[in-house]
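step 3/5: co-fold with NAP
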Amino acid sequence: MEKYAVVGFPIAHSFSPDIHNPAFKVLSLDAYYERIEIRPEEFHEKILDLKSSNFKGFNITVPFKKQIIPYLDKIDSTADSINAVNTVKSIDGKWFGYNTDIDGFLDPIREVTNKIKNVLILGAGGAAYAVTYACIEFFKPQKLLIANRNPESAKKLLEKIKTDSVNEKKYLALDNAGIMHEKFDLIVNTTSAGMGAQKEINPLNIKKLYHSETIVYDLIYNPPETLFLKQAKQLGLKYLNGLEMLAGQAKKSFKIWTNQDYPGELDINKMLTEKYFK
Ligand code: NAP
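step 4/5: write tokens
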């Protein structure tokens, strides 16, 4: 049997096994996907154990997307440019690293590419790097603002990612973002404000920042409607949560590992919604 996993900390609540195991079944692949929790202080030792095991591939998530990089034998150029890996494929014991969050993020908004010129991204953690890279490469925005609680991290993000094609780029403190008098075509929350213990936090009041066509995108999928999305809904805006992104990144990882497309008859959104949100 081929073994796959998602590695992170904490990991008990990951939905990923519920995405990959049904696909192995549909395609009659003798494979199994499990959760592996590694405590941050044991990362080095446990990741070397994993390397000497017979896992064919794994997803790697918070807080290890950057930490995994020195253990790879090769890194894909996109993953390298954002310094974050979420998918590892093992071939004859050699590890190849990729980032499929970029595709996942774009999947639900690809058809509006030419409408997105002014972008506001909240957050400057791992996910914000993938989102910023995706926005620059695919939307070619004229204006790009990164607002983070700690503005220094937003500054670093703009220094790391190639932004030459963007006319106007700025970073600012999240606290100052709500008082700007600017309208955005896309506002993305990549912060963890709105989930888990931070469920009651709305990272930003967007009442001064939208126009009638603004798209509001929250990477959080649990809960499916954060306070941030609730405000977008009240304002009558188009909005989406991170479930389709989760599905999109998983499909791309599946293809990397198995060289097969994720089965079209499986609707990940529906499977997860039925299992976790009904
Ligand atoms: P991360 O590297 O830990 O970064 C967390 C970010 O959230 C930082 O910018 C941090 O700001 C900010 N933040 C945390 N608490 C905050 C608060 N109370 N108010 C304002 N800002 C706050 O995490 P990540 O990997 O980027 O993930 C971020 C979120 O994206 C998580 O909710 C994760 O579940 C989600 N995500 C979803 C998908 C998907 O497939 N849908 C994929 C990847 C990530 P500071 O820098 O100031 O601390």
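step 5/5: annotate
The mean pLDDT is 96.
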